[in-house]
């Protein structure tokens, strides 16, 4: 797997600092699972952050800090399996769930349009996160659209081209309102992506906008 497109350093820094929105962090983490380059970048950013903390002057803890820490240590740990919780949609042979989705649930595949299906992903620690899977058939395309805010997409299977570049297995894309694009899946096979959206996907055309609203995109 040759990965051509990666998250920028701002996203990796937010992930390392624990400040990235939960939905976005799931998508970025799924990229890191197959990208040694980005894992090394995150390790470097974490090391830099640790060094900066070490350089700060000592500060007194709140009186109840120790008690809260001990209570958190003693709290029971909820263990999850190696796959998303049922129900979950079927996947092509040889495709595995990203480890970042452990503990999440995903609906069955739902019709979105001819050759297009989607699945809502629910995060146990952030039910409001707008995360979903898209499964688009060979040669099919999403309607042309832009974004009110930000969409992060990780290609899990197959490949598409959106007029800017080709995105294959393992590739990551960040899209916003600065451009309009229309992802078209390659003719050789279907494409499955994991996506997290802040704001709305702004489709062109009344039918596409209606379908997008029904899906919550």
Which regions contain 5 or more consecutive residues with pLDDT less than 50? none
The coarse silhouette is globular
The CATH architecture of the domain at 99-215 can be named as Sandwich
CATH class of the domain at 99-215: Mainly Beta
Radius of gyration: 19 Å
CATH homologous superfamily assignment of the domain at 99-215:
Jelly Rolls
Structural category: alpha+beta
Give a count of the beta strands, DSSP E runs of length 2 or more.
12
* Order of helical and strand elements: HHHHEEEEEEEEEEEEH
At CATH level 3, the topology of the domain at 99-215 is Jelly Rolls
Largest sheet: 7 strands, antiparallel
Helix content: 25-40%
Continuous helix count = 5
Strand content: 25-35%
What does this structure look like?
With 217 residues, this protein is α+β, with helices and mostly antiparallel strands. The protein has a domain at 99-215: Jelly Rolls. It has 5 helices and 12 strands. It has helices at 9-17, 22-32, 36-55, 65-74, 206-215, and strands at residues 105-106, 110-113, 116-123, 126-136, 145-147, 150-157, 160-161, 166-167, 172-176, 184-185, 191-198, 201-203. The strands form 3 sheets. Strands 1, 2, 3, 4, 6, 9 and 11 form a 7-stranded antiparallel beta sheet that branches. It has a 3-stranded antiparallel beta sheet with strand order 8-7-10, with no helix packed on it. Strands 5-12 form a two-stranded antiparallel sheet. Strand 3 (116-123) and strand 4 form a beta hairpin. The longest helix is centred in the N-terminal third of the chain and has 20 residues, at 36-55. The radius of gyration is 19 Å and the shape is globular. The model has no long low-confidence stretch (mean pLDDT 86).
